[in-house]
Amino acid sequence: MPRAKSTSTSADARQKIVAAARSHFLAHGFRSVTMDDLAAEVGMSKKTFYAHFPSKLALVEAVMQEKIREAEADMDSIPSAAASSFPETLHALLACMQKHTGRSSPPSSATCAAMLRISLPT
Q1: How far is the C-alpha of 2 from the C-alpha of 5, rounded, in Å?
Q2: CA-based R_g, the chain, Å
Q3: Which positions ≥6 away from 7 have C-beta within 8 Å?
Q4: Terminal Cα distance for the chain, rounded
Q5: What does the DSSP 8-state code read for residue 79?
Q6: What's the pTM value of the predicted model, to 2 decimals?
Q7: Burial class (CB in 10 A: 0-12, 13-18, 19+), 101
Q8: Distances (CA, A) of 51 to 16, 22, 91
Q9: φ and ψ at 78, to 5 degrees?
């Protein structure tokens, strides 16, 4: 049974890290946020932090996956067109999209390239 508690604690720690990273990435941008700052914010050693996320890219991927899961869950809750009128369904869909995109702006092409470690033609 202690193993289940450890797994739960590990999952809780990962979720805490993802939530802090998401907040900081949205507020300060990807480049301005350091892994060391996030480790200090969530109150864990850098060694423990890096055991959960070995790189900043891995952490960004986890943040994006969590955001996508949230958006998918919200969209799944939108009633089907058969259960409501098309305008009601469209309104619900657009409201959901606005909810999930209104808090962030798309990064520049250069930022995306840096995140993916590719170079863009000039």
Answers
A1: 5
A2: 18
A3: none
A4: 57
A5: P
A6: 0.67
A7: exposed
A8: 14, 18, 43
A9: -70, 130
| Residue entry with tokens 């993916």 | 116
Query: Which of 54, 53, 36 lies closest to 45 in space, CA to CA?
Result: 36
Domains of the chain, CATH where assigned: 2-116 (1.10.357.10)
pLDDT for 76-107, tens place per residue?
Answer: 888 765 567 777 777 787 788 888 777 555 55
Residue 32, CA atoms < 13 Å, CB-side half-sphere: 8
Structure tokens at 55: 């790189």
How big is the CA angle at 16 (ends 1 and 112), to the nearest 5 degrees? Answer: 130
Instruction: Read off the tokens for 87.
Output: 């305008």
Of 34, 53, 38, 26, whose CA–CA distance to 107 is shortest?
26
H helix and E strand count, the chain: 6, 0
Q: pLDDT band for 48, please (50, 70, 90 cuts).
A: very high
Indicate whether 40 pLDDT > 90. Answer: yes
The span from the CA of 104 to the CA of 22, in Å, is: 10
Residue 47 corresponds to which amino acid? K
